[in-house]
Design brief:
Mean pLDDT: 79
Distance between the termini: 21 Å
Shape: rod-shaped
Biased composition (Low complexity): 157-169
Region (Disordered): 150-169
Largest sheet: 4 strands, antiparallel
Number of domains: 2
Keywords: Membrane, Transmembrane, Transmembrane helix
Transmembrane segments: 44-70, 76-100
CATH class of the largest domain: Mainly Beta
Low-confidence stretches: 154-168
InterPro entries: DUF6232
Number of strands: 9
CATH architecture of the largest domain: Roll
Strand content: 25-35%
CATH topology of the largest domain: PH-domain like
Radius of gyration: 27 Å
């Protein structure tokens, strides 16, 4: 038996697909397809908040430099205000790295609910539903590989044996 994918709730092997304790033998699965749900506004708002947090220090530094020039103070005061503003902008570099990492992960997870469906024993069955696009893609591809490698049952008829056509994902 070959394992194509395995996590806490999903296992794809050369024999079966197991999702949340339910097992679907590959020989009983027909066509496999996926559906995309509507966008999650919560995820998009979170991305916008991260973008605003990234732009905040830059805006603060620019405003500080503009304020320093606008106040028309002595050269020392102007340089001090501008320098402090630039240091604030530079000081958030490590924070910006963390925010960029969160932003990158949000794109990897996606902003839609994704569902995997299959025809099982003649009926459409939802196999999986997740909002994690990266995980969904890994599972979907594992199911494709497993079904491509699964031996196709032979149908014995009056003219001899011939492979039964199967629908692939």
């Amino acid at each position: 038996m070959i394992t194509y994918y395995d996590d806490q709730s999903v296992q794809v092997t050369s024999n079966a697909l197991r999702v949340d304790g339910r097992s679907y033998p590959l020989a009983e699965l027909g066509t496999v397809w996926h559906r995309r749900g509507s966008r999650s506004w919560r995820v998009l708002a979170g991305r916008g908040a991260i973008g605003a947090a990234l732009a905040g220090p830059i805006v603060a530094a620019v405003l500080g430099v503009a304020l320093a020039v606008w106040l028309h103070r002595s050269l020392v005061v102007t340089i001090a205000i501008a320098g402090a503003s630039v240091l604030v902008g530079l000081g958030v570099g490590p924070l910006a790295d963390l925010l960029f990492e969160h932003l990158d992960r949000s794109y990897a997870r996606g902003s839609r609910e994704l569902e995997m469906w299959a025809r099982w024993r003649g009926q459409p069955v939802r196999l999986l539903r997740t909002g994690d696009a990266l995980r969904f893609g890994q599972i979907y591809r594992a199911v494709q590989r497993a079904m491509e490698q699964a031996p196709q049952p032979k149908v014995i008829g009056s003219s001899g044996s011939s492979p039964r056509p199967r629908s692939r994902p």
